[in-house]
Amino acid sequence: MGPRTAPARPPRRGDRADGGPLPRGLRADHRRAIRRLLAPNGGGWRVKFRFEVVVSLKEGLLDPQGRTIQDALPTLGWSNVSEARVGKHIELAVESDNEAAAREQVEEMSRRFLSNPVIEDFRILTGKKAAR
Length: 132
Description:
Blueprint: H1 28-38, E1 47-57, H2 64-75, E2 87-96, H3 99-114, E3 120-130
Antiparallel strand pairs: 1-2, 1-3
């Protein structure tokens, strides 16, 4: 008896940039990685951009959490703190073709979902390009 061989599968469309199949000797996880690298998303290569959104109460509004922290710090030995405010810090990794489009999306997210525009302000700190 000869060695058992798996039946040949018909080539999948889109395995290579030119539509041909990838070599059979490649492991399945390598095939997936190569397909991801060869396939441009949305007409261009997408890059991951990092952003930090800092949401805080508007100036002049009472901040009970910040006030509690401010009052507690001197009793713990830190009497040089004159003001404490509490907010939210949100880190986002956004895939986009360019940084301007990604920042625009983050601004929209912050305005519509991440903050309450009636009582909160937000600021966006632009991150660096993240590795894939």
